[in-house]
TrEMBL record:
Protein name: YtxH domain-containing protein
């Protein structure tokens, strides 16, 4: 009878210690996922900022090129009017 009770106590102790270890591992995994998600969001934000800057620069270049063409066309029209 003593052996049975001691065996059950040992099994209960092992289950309890395994449960704690599993909980610790789950907590660590959750922290790791949270960290990875934060890094992914930061990376995506940096990429979006970079893309927005590139689009902004391209728009400025296109506007400047368009303005130069309009100015050139206006000069040609003035010259045609003078003739």
């Amino acid at each position: 009878m003593k052996k049975t009770i001691l065996s059950l106590a040992l099994v209960a102790a092992l289950m309890t210690s395994c449960k704690e270890k599993t909980q610790e591992e789950a907590a660590e995994a959750a922290d790791a996922v949270g960290t990875e998600m934060t890094e992914a969001v930061d990376s995506a934000a940096a990429t979006m900022d970079s893309a927005a800057t590139e689009v902004k620069d391209a728009a400025k270049d296109a506007t400047a090129a368009g303005a130069a063409k309009v100015e050139e066309a206006a000069k040609e029209v003035k010259e045609e009017v003078k003739k």
